[in-house]
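Sample entry (377 residues):
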Amino acid sequence: MLRRIWAVMQKEFIQTFRDRRTLLIQLGLPVLQLLILGYAIRTNVEHIPMVVADQSLDRASRSLVTALVASQYFDVVDYVATEAQAIRAIDEGRAQAGVVILPDFAANVERGAAQVLLLVDGSDIFTSQTAYNAITAITQNHSMEVLISKLQRAGKLRGREQLLPLDARVRILYNPNLTDLWFLIPGIVAVILQTQTITLTAAAVVRERESGTIEQILVTPIRPIELLIGKIAPNIVIAIVNMLTILGLGVLWFEVPFQGNFWLFFWLACLYVLAGLGMGLLVSAISQNQKQSQQTAMMLMLIGLVLGGFMFPRYLMPPMIRAVGNLFPLTYFIPLARGIITKGIGVTYLWQQMVILIVYVVAILFFATRSFKRGLD
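Predicted structure, serialized as tokens:
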């Protein structure tokens, strides 16, 4: 058995290293993907371009605009005269938020009846949510400051504690500065490994079928499981090298702290690699040609990316959609990667995902072997 597997492994290693250009792409593409995603994806939106329609032009209105800019969430890109002009600036893409301050703002503030119109571009969901939350919080805080100032001038308030009896303290665990890369890099590593492993093996079997060499393999005493193990061996090596490369790049280049046990993460990543390679083999075994295998692999990678919990929380998804997401190893590896890298937790808290991933590897290789047998028949 080992001799037969070793023979297939030798053939696959020779074929892999013979095509050096493809090998270079396989090793360099994950690094390029990590650099692009690491610099392009941002969840903490700041310096949102904002247009201001200040129809009051008094000290109170200028103080409100200054508070918005000082928060660093907004940058004033233009001053206009009316609400219509502010909406036009948003429509033209020059701004993504707008503030319309009505006339006699300062006098209305003193009477407690001042109004401000906040305009937010809802076509960009991430920016619009950040802008809405930031503007709401800043204006409420500014209103409280104005109220406290009025009461102090009237001699009705000596300190903030008389008006604010509740002091809420927030302590953010594991990522105190809310650095988005600390959240993104573990997920990006998982996504890149999924893409890489499925792509590497998606055409492994179907390529033999198209080239006609499958008939030559059939006359040998090799078993389907032995053939599959031999064919994925070079891909395992490539995937592990890519895993170490992109993890090292995330920790050293993007300065994401690695809080947990490296060897625990390494062996779990190897399991995850086997799961992805097994899924690629299953795609290859059930496909009739390479074009079909590529399209199926792309569809699976896209569905796994959306439903695996990389960007969108799974607990918000309907039960049926979550059940579909359970069919992808990415769903189980993302909590493992974030738990070990970001939180520094171990087997005690992650054993359920670990057991499911082990079962997944066994099941996916079993189904890939059975599908390969049916394809040969």
